[in-house]
């Protein structure tokens, strides 16, 4: 039996994997809108390949592709994904993640997210019934730990954590909020305390915001936990996009979401900075969400090579640190770019002179 997630976090830094819905939407296997993971049954080879690319890039955790795989979400507004059955989707996702994790030394995590039942005002019992169904599939398949992610209400996240905690597995919980608080106005520092008291072992923020915003939010969570005398591991899984102009709902309110986000994509050098700042803040589960591709994760692994005992990911065979491979380029002026100083100081142009640097987010308070 290898080391579990908490042991690994006690000893060092863990690198997560990237956002499957967005990456697989671009490859043609996920529909934008419902964002559900029926690809685990319809196109398992595509899911396996993405897991493999993240493993090769340095991810220590394969998140089972179970995002939005609660039974109510798979069928809401006529989504046809539900025809496969939520249990079948959750179990298939676990088997794919395990197959690839076993090709390296990775752990697998079952994940659950916010539900339409909660958004519609459903009772705690009705919401937890959906979480229980997913938790049952995860325990049957022998996942290593659980992640409750992408919750904009701390209350619903706590309900998920309560169900996960009953499995006896370690539980991570991440809200998709900024430093101001959840959508009900619970301060971010207080959200962390509530998640800890519900039983979460690893606490942080995922999705919806860029690394800078997520790190500012997790700094608040860290403060809240410290002031409450609670010790928990911290996790960050930000967007692979820059969103300094986002409101409290994050990137979904930005007019470019979801089909014109590309100009905001992080460079690999942005990921170096993210990894360093997260590490310096004390975050030990440094992960990624929508917009992150395997090469972004490789950049995290390369930045933290010393902290990880000099271990580089397999994908670094094709990527010398700081662009060193360019020394083999034909043109001398490109060879001259093979340095950390060059890439750290570059301010990349977008090639879109007619575009503003920021957009004006739309603003709505109701999710239905
Ligand atoms: Zn995401």
Automatic annotation (TrEMBL):
Entry keyword Metal-binding: yes
Keyword line: Metal-binding, Methyltransferase, Transferase, Zinc
SUPFAM superfamilies xref list: Homocysteine S-methyltransferase
Binding site for Zn(2+): 207, 289-290
GO BP, sorted A to Z: methionine biosynthetic process; methylation
Protein name in the entry: Hcy-binding domain-containing protein
Molecular function in Gene Ontology: betaine-homocysteine S-methyltransferase activity; zinc ion binding
PROSITE patterns referenced in this protein's UniProt entry, alphabetically: HCY
Taxonomic source organism: Trichoplax adhaerens
Ranges for domain Hcy-binding: 2-304
Cofactor(s), by name: Zn(2+)
Pathway: Amino-acid biosynthesis; L-methionine biosynthesis via de novo pathway; L-methionine from L-homocysteine (BhmT route): step 1/1
Record note on cofactor: Binds 1 zinc ion per subunit.
């Amino acid at each position: 039996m290898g080391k579990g997630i908490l042991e690994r976090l006690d000893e060092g830094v863990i690198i997560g994997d990237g956002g499957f819905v967005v990456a697989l939407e671009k490859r043609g296997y996920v529909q934008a809108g419902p964002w559900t993971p029926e690809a685990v049954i319809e196109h398992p080879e595509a899911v396996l390949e993405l897991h493999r690319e993240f493993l090769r890039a340095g991810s220590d955790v394969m998140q089972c592709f179970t995002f939005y795989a609660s039974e109510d979400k798979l069928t809401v507004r006529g989504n046809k994904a539900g025809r496969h059955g939520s249990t079948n989707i959750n179990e298939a996702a676990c088997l794919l993640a395990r197959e690839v994790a076993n090709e390296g030394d990775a752990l697998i995590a079952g994940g659950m997210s916010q539900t339409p039942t909660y958004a519609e005002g459903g009772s705690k019992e009705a919401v937890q019934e959906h979480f229980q169904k997913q938790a049952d599939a995860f325990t049957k398949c022998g996942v290593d730990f659980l992640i409750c992610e992408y919750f904009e209400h701390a209350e619903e996240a706590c309900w998920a954590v309560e169900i996960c905690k009953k499995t006896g597995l370690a539980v991570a919980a991440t809200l998709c909020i900024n430093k101001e608080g959840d959508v009900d106005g619970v301060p971010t520092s207080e959200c962390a305390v509530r998640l800890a008291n519900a039983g979460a072992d690893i606490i942080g923020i995922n999705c919806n915001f860029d690394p800078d915003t997520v790190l500012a939010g997790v700094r608040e969570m860290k403060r809240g936990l410290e002031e409450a005398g609670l010790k928990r591991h911290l996790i960050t899984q930000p967007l692979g996009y820059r969103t300094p102009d986002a409101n409290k709902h994050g990137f979904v309110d930005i007019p470019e979401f979801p089909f014109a986000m590309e100009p905001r994509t992080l460079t690999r050098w942005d990921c170096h900075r993210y990894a360093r700042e997260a590490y310096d803040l004390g975050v030990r589960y440094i992960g990624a969400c929508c917009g992150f591709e395997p090469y972004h994760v490789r950049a995290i692994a390369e930045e933290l090579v010393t902290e990880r005992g000099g271990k580089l990911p397999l994908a670094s065979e094709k990527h010398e640190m700081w662009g060193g491979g360019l020394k083999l380029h034909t043109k001398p002026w490109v060879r001259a770019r093979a340095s950390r100083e060059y890439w750290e100081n570059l301010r990349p142009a977008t090639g879109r002179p007619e575009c503003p640097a920021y957009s004006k987010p739309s603003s709505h308070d109701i999710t239905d």
